[in-house]
Automatic annotation (TrEMBL):
InterPro entries: ACOT13, HotDog_dom_sf, PAAI_dom, Thioestr_dom. Belongs to the thioesterase PaaI family. The keyword Hydrolase applies. PANTHER family: ACYL-COENZYME A THIOESTERASE 13 (PTHR21660:SF1), THIOESTERASE SUPERFAMILY MEMBER-RELATED (PTHR21660). This is PaaI family thioesterase. Its EC number is 3.1.2.-. GO terms for molecular function: hydrolase activity. Keywords: Hydrolase. The lineage of its organism: Bacteria, Pseudomonadati, Pseudomonadota, Betaproteobacteria, Burkholderiales. The keyword Hydrolase applies. Pfam families: 4HBT (PF03061). It comes from Roseateles violae. Residues 50-124 form the Thioesterase domain. SUPFAM superfamilies: Thioesterase/thiol ester dehydrase-isomerase.
């Protein structure tokens, strides 16, 4: 079964914590094992330096990878983050960013992924890798 952008968008409030749903992530594009999201950079995500804080980026990356796993599997399956390693390459000071998550490998019990977060100009700002345990 294939999941499209509308199905993934509708699943966010029922799968994730309310504060993740409040991030207002917008599913822009879906392919097998891959999603692209638009993330508004809300005032609450900006620290005193005038740029988006790393915690908001990591929450978006983790959420995007779960959605990419759903696109890979064709459904939601319970899973938990085992590892999330994040590198912050440049600050994001725009009103939104683009989050692209890709499943690199999905096995019976573990899955591995990569997430890129870019500013509206397309310049890579955050790169993360993840490992998930499928429950």
């Amino acid at each position: 079964m294939s999941l499209g952008a509308a199905e993934l968008q509708q699943s966010i409030p029922s799968i994730f914590a309310p504060w993740i749903a409040a991030m207002e992530l917008e599913v822009l594009r879906v392919a097998k094992g891959e999603v692209e999201l638009r993330m508004p950079v809300k005032r609450d995500y900006v620290h005193v330096g005038g740029v988006m804080c790393g915690q908001a980026a990591m929450a978006a990356a983790d959420t995007a990878m779960v959605l990419a796993m759903m696109a890979e599997l064709g459904e939601f399956r319970p899973m938990t983050t085992v590892q999330l390693q994040t590198s912050f390459l440049r600050p994001i000071s725009a009103d939104h960013c683009i989050v692209t998550a890709r499943v690199l490998r999905s096995g019976k019990s573990l899955a591995f992924g990569s997430i890129d977060i870019a500013g509206p100009d397309g310049r890579l700002a955050v790169q993360a890798t993840t490992t998930y345990a499928l429950l």
